[in-house]
């Protein structure tokens, strides 16, 4: 089949590209002007350099494409919501507009479990309504993006399937894992409430890629939304200690009460907003959600509809992940700077 992938120079998109090529599919990719796509070109990926808001350019690139996997997104936990909307909502809208009338078999939209309310979750499934407002621009824009995707499915017949992965980890992540390693090194990791026993919604990147192909292959996926995790209990403490041990760093020990962590976070957030900070404060609400809330989500729908059964268990996945970071330690050092 002929796949077109957005965000192909990124973490998840890059792994989707690799898996497509291994399966013998033809692959093309949208690439922003100025992006380093030499590795993709070397793999034989057809590159389309341009703007995701240029509908004419997008229509031309979509000619003869069977499947679109939309991984491109502006990620982060700070900044004006409009900056996130421009990429995550309006970029998606332009892409879906370009797909109208195209003979696609599937449009995979990569969303996030971050669309759910910032509270404790115990087996939350896809029937839970999403909040209309989030504190951070990323989560807000992902909620709005899902609404746009479903609009194009219902009103124009674009064969959309929405995937909501949790915290994606694995080799080649250049965002979250390097920051976590640095915070472990400097002793900044804490377990607010629950002493680190609360669930982390992990999903190994290869398990996520498996779910992408299942959503492409199963007709039941069209017009549906799926939560995705590794499907096993992984606590904050278990994950962080596995990373710390692999990198020979001290294990976190601080376990402040959640109410105190929330109060400190509110003060830091307020102060940062008042001074117009361009970077997230040390303690932010997305980080508090990540480390302090119980993030347990049901994946039963994905199991039933798609036959999704995560094949890489946590122990093997974290071993492979940390082996990559130990081998690529110069990158981690550069990330700290």
Number of strands: 11
Radius of gyration: 20 Å
Biggest β-sheet description: 7 strands, parallel
- Report the total helices: 13
**CATH structural fold name of the domain at 2-175 and 200-233 and 295-311:** Rossmann fold
How would you sum up this structure, described in words?
This protein is α/β, with parallel strands linked by helices and 337 residues long. The chain has a domain at 2-175 and 200-233 and 295-311: NAD(P)-binding Rossmann-like Domain (Rossmann fold). It contains 13 helices and eleven strands. The chain has helices at residues 11-22, 38-42, 55-61, 81-99, 137-156, 176-185, 205-217, 236-246, 258-274, 285-292, 300-306, 314-327, 329-336; strands spanning 2-6, 26-31, 46-49, 67-70, 106-110, 121-124, 160-165, 167-169, 202-204, 225-228, 295-297. The strands form three sheets. Strands 3-2-1-4-5-7-10 form a seven-stranded parallel β-sheet, sandwiched between helices. Strands 6-11 form a two-stranded parallel ribbon. Strand 2 (26-31), helix 2 and strand 3 form a beta-alpha-beta unit. Helix 3 crosses helix 4 (81-99), helix 6 packs across helix 13 (329-336) and helix 12 crosses helix 13.
